[in-house]
Amino acid sequence: MKRNISLFVDKFRVKGEIKNSIHKFLRDEEIVILNYLVDKEVNISNLISEFSPSSVSLIESLYEKGYLDKQSKKGDIYYKSNPFELILKRFINHNPKYQELAAVDKAQFQKAVMDLALEEMRSSEKPVYRVIPVEETIKDKRQLIPHHKAIHYLQRAAAISVIDCLCRMTHNRCDKPRRVCLALGEKAKFFIERGIGAEISVQEGLEILKISVENGLVHSINDTENPHYLCNCCECCCVFVQGLKKYGVFSSMGRSGFIASRDLELCTECGTCLEYCIFDAITEENDGIQFNQDKCFGCGLCAHNCPQSAVQLIVSNKVDE
C-alpha cells in the first residue's frame, strides 16, 4: 500500500499535507489503476490484458466516480486518469465518504483543492476563467459579439446540464444558490449519465442565469474556445475570484470586455451597486459613491440591480489576454 501511494504522489505530483490522506478516499487497487493510466490513454482490451477480466468493474467504477476519463475512438473504449485536482473535486462533491470525514480532514481536502487551483492559475499564460456580462445591461447592443453572449454558448452546446456549484459545495462559505452552474457538451453528458446533473433546455439555462444575477452571482466561463462550464460565481467560494482577490493571481479571472458607466443625473447614490460589486470597483468615499473602472470586470451586476437604471456597460479597452 505504501509503495502504491508513494508512486501515486509522484505520478500525480501531489503536494502538501494531502499526501498523507490518499488512503482516506482511494483503495489500493484503485490507486494501482490510476497510477497505470496517468498521462496515457489505454483501450479496455489492453487494460484487461494488463490486469484481469475482473478489473473491468473496477475501471468502470473509477469512471463512474469521475476519477477516470473515457473516450470512444473507432469503436474502441479508451481510459485515462483525470488530474488530481479533478479527482479531489469529484470525491468532495459526489462521494458520500467525504461527508463521513472529520472536520479537520475536510478542511485539508478543501485546502488542497484551493492550492491546486492556485497552481493552475499561476502557471497559466492567460485567464483560466473569464467574466461574461449580463447582456441586458450593455448600452449599445451592436457591440455584442458571440463570446460576449452567454446564450451563444448555450445554443451551440450539444447538451446542457445544471449542476451544483463545485466551489460552493466544496467550501460552503455562503448561502447563495448552489444548483445554478451549467455544464456544456461532453461535460454535461457526464453529469447527466450519473444523475449528478439534470438535462435542461437553452431557455431553462437562461432562466438559471437570470436567477443567478438576481442573487448577485457573476457569469463566467472557462476561457477556451469551447468552454465546458458556464458558472455563476460568488466572491467567497469561487476559487478563481478568490485567486484574484485574496491571492492576487491576475491570471485567474479575465475581464468581459466591458466596464460599468454611471449616469450621474439618474444616480441617487442609494448604494445598491456597491452592495453587488464583488470586484471592489465601487466604493463609498467622503464625496459619495465612486466607480473605479480600472478594477471593473464588466459583469453587469451593478447595472442589472440599479433601481434607477443609472448604470450601463460600455466597451472597455482593458481586456485581459
Order of strands side by side in the largest beta sheet? 7-5-6-9-8-4-10
The separation of the N and C termini measures: 45 Å
**Given the helix and strand composition, which structural class is it?**
alpha+beta
Provide the number of structural domains: 3
Rg, rounded, reads 22 Å
Give the overall form.
Answer: elongated
What percent of the residues sit in helical stretches (DSSP H or I)? 25-40%
Q: What is the averaged pLDDT score?
A: 92
What does this protein look like?
By secondary structure, the protein is an alpha+beta fold. It has three domains: 2-87, Arc Repressor Mutant, subunit A (Orthogonal Bundle), CATH 1.10.10; 123-254, no CATH class; 258-315, Alpha-Beta Plaits (2-Layer Sandwich). Helices cover 39% and strands 18% of the residues. The protein contains 14 helices and 14 strands. The chain has helices spanning 2-11, 28-36, 44-50, 55-65, 84-94, 96-99, 103-123, 150-156, 166-171, 185-193, 202-214, 239-245, 272-276, 301-305; strands at 42-43, 68-73, 76-81, 129-131, 160-163, 181-184, 198-199, 218-222, 229-233, 253-254, 258-262, 282-285, 288-291, 311-315. A seven-stranded mixed sheet has the order 7-5-6-9-8-4-10. Helix 1 packs parallel to helix 2 (28-36).
